[in-house]
Amino acid sequence: MEYPVLNRHLPYLFFVFLNWSLPISGQQPASPLVKSFDKYQKMKADGLYGLTWVSLGPVVNSARADLVQIDPTDPATMYAGFGSGGLWKTVNHGLDWFPIFENKAALGIGDVALASSNPQIIYLGTGEHLKKPRNFTLPGNGMYRSDDGGATWSYLGLEDSWAIAEIAVHPTNPDIVMVCVLGHLWSANRHRGLYRTIDGGKNWEQVLYLDDQTGANDIVISPTHPNRMYATMWEVYPGISGRQSGVYHSEDTGKTWTRSTAGLPENDQIGRIGLAVSAQNPDKVYALMDNLNNAREEAAELYRSNDGGAHWLKTHGGPFMIFPGIGWYFTDVYVNPTDDDDVYCLGVRLARSQDGGKTFTYLGGTVQHMNPSRAQGLHLDQCELWIDPHRPEHLALGNDGGLYVSYDAGNSWMHYNNIPVGEFYDLTIDQKHGMIFGGTQDDATVFGPAAEFKPHFPDPWQYIWIDPWDGGDGCVSQIDPDDDCILYYSMQHGEAIRYDRCVDSTYGIKPALPDSIQDTLNFNYITPYFVSPHRSSTIYHGGNYVFKSNDRGTTWKVISPNLTRSVLSEKRSFALGALVESPVLAGWLYAGTDKGAFWVTNDDGKHWVEHSSGLANNYIRCISPSKFQPQRIYLAMTGLNYDDLGSYLYRSEDNGLHWQSIRNGLPDEPVNVVMEDPRHADLLYAGTARGVYISGDRGEHWSLLGGGLPAAAIADMDVLLESMDLVIATHGRGIYKLNLRPIHEMIDLQISPQENHLFAIPASTRPWFNAQGGEVDQRTIHKTSICFWLHQSQPVKLRLFDHENQLIWEKTMDGHPGYNEYRWDLVIREVNSDLPYFVHYQRYLAAGEYQMQLTMDDQIVGQQRWHVKEALSPYARK
Hints:
There is one protein chain. The protein is mainly beta. It has three domains: 5-21 and 100-353, 7 Propeller (Methylamine Dehydrogenase, Chain H), CATH 2.130.10.10; 428-441 and 471-739, YVTN repeat-like/Quinoprotein amine dehydrogenase (Methylamine Dehydrogenase, Chain H, 7 Propeller); 757-869, Immunoglobulin-like, CATH 2.60.40. The protein has three helices and 70 strands. The strands form 17 sheets. Strands 1-15-14-13-12 form a five-stranded antiparallel β-sheet, with no helix packed on it. Strands 2-57-56-55-54 form a five-stranded mixed β-sheet, with helices on one face. Strands 28-32-31-30-29 form a five-stranded mixed β-sheet, with no helix packed on it. The longest helix is centred in the N-terminal third of the chain and has 15 residues, at 32-46. The model is unreliable at 1-24 (pLDDT under 50).
């Protein structure tokens, strides 16, 4: 029997309205993230691929900063959290940053709170609370606590919370903590709502629970009367609004809760709600609401209660236009701790009212950047605000452009774009010029060299484009291999641009359906399109239909039926997630949808055949046809948008007619990309939501690849062929590279795993010394990788001899089984002086021919000749 929607809520409304509370134990079932992380850790410890991942940055474009906190007792200490990039800390006003929460079971983070009574106590809630269907909203596994400013962490439970939206710590007792668990974003679950601990996280109570579709979104505690608390609930599944969304208050430190209704709208179009309570008057509280009953541009409404939530009044008469129908992205409100009529509201823009919400001004101001940037003003899409409790004109703002700090109430800002946390969607390499291109989450599309990131020097990366609001989602980039002037970039939902950089002109190339096809054209957020590897003027573009252009996107024709209409009902979907062409067979196209339907055509779109049997019903993120065997295809899919954290990786030897799972031994982590090695058919690389894996037998067995890479979501990968670097784009930690030459040499020379071997060392270049003063130019220091293979753990020495066979340098190391790598800056002598004129003297290896030896117990087990070139001036005309 079907019941009206309201009937489902009556039991909960009954107990809440009567101010009953039935505390439920905070015990939650085990998270699959913990099991997969344990396996990842074991593979990391047992791995043989001890090569080094090197960070390339960039920092110029920063990333979405969801979490912002400053130690009120020490403003030089700041914390910036990035949903998929972890928590970072500075102790010198942002000159240097270091990560303090990484390599944990959680994939993403949600909120951070410092105890005002002791700022060394930090609570961190994991799991992004951004309900955005891009396959990159990363879940967490509960709560963590640090008692030493983030140096060490203790796990506190709430394992199945998935997404934590807000944390509030009691102002005088740091062991009393309230946590808003939003819960699973894409499925129903009962482990959501408002949780409380009174013993610092040892035990939890679920003190406010409505149903398995409604989570807690915000919580504030009165700083003067901490028994008084206010919270909001958000019906976050299956949509972004519902009748259960509302405001609640408690008078007994969060034990029991009553819904506040008088003056507030109640209907199934109420979305996310944020709260702020006065520091002077515990009865005065603001609620910023996403009311989707209004016109799209007018969904924001600010309400105020002056009697502890008993009655509410909308503060403004006219429309409040700070977010156009996307209140689920922000909807936070903050009040000046010394003036409770001074209110800040977060939306697409930052709005301020100094009369209790009657009128608003938009804050922008002037912006200075830590790294020079094309961005002109304050980035859009505001995520979190911190107001100094002692000096309220001191603000810290997190938005889609990163962290901004103001000391004059928003008239001017410093942008801390010096943290390598880029949230990339895509990666493309210009093989001719050795440049890397990538699109990012609301921070445009950038390009730069495959050079190691140097934090104290200007970022060499640049924008290909940036929108008028100093950001914009950059998705897929493509390079024209035959015309250096032409490249392509795209935004969300199919928007694509052809850019002629020689004359600085752009042309929109988004396709549309002809009048002859009466259907709706859909594009996924990240829309697949590509330049044909067989003809550079040909482009393919995929929505729910596939389009082809023979004139670089000027005109299009439809070359497929609606591919989302699978013959299997469970695979009928919205649009394509992947579209590629065989690298060896022109006109062989492969398409995959966001529900696991796979299609193939061998005649450039004249006829399509579906081969979906055997594939999961998840988002096909990557299709990788083999260049060695034309019938072989690899396929990766992610289930993040469906709350499925399994690893789905497949191989077909007959163009998709039959599929074999090759996830063998991989942890349960969504797989975003799979790629064949450019030289060896049996070598595969897979990028998951946590790392990069390698297989030497086409997916029958997997190992974790390399060290030095923090656990991060891998969005895309490619190989820079000239240097044979595997380059990866992460969603949260920027770009990294790892050199594949030792792996190739191991295969090419058929080196036995039972041998010890020193690999060939590529020619190196010594740094440049400035003519004035003779000091080394730090920008020109490029470390040399010395790699070797050991069949067992053993101490080893690297010993360097010059052309006269004189020992001039040696390094003792603890070797481990498998690949080892030592990265050397070519310094052979270093002296520090305590004289009044401080001297830090470094002597670098001279240019010339050398011999490197690998020794064990004074026995030579490997040696290689090595050439070091003289430096070129970085000031030389090019």
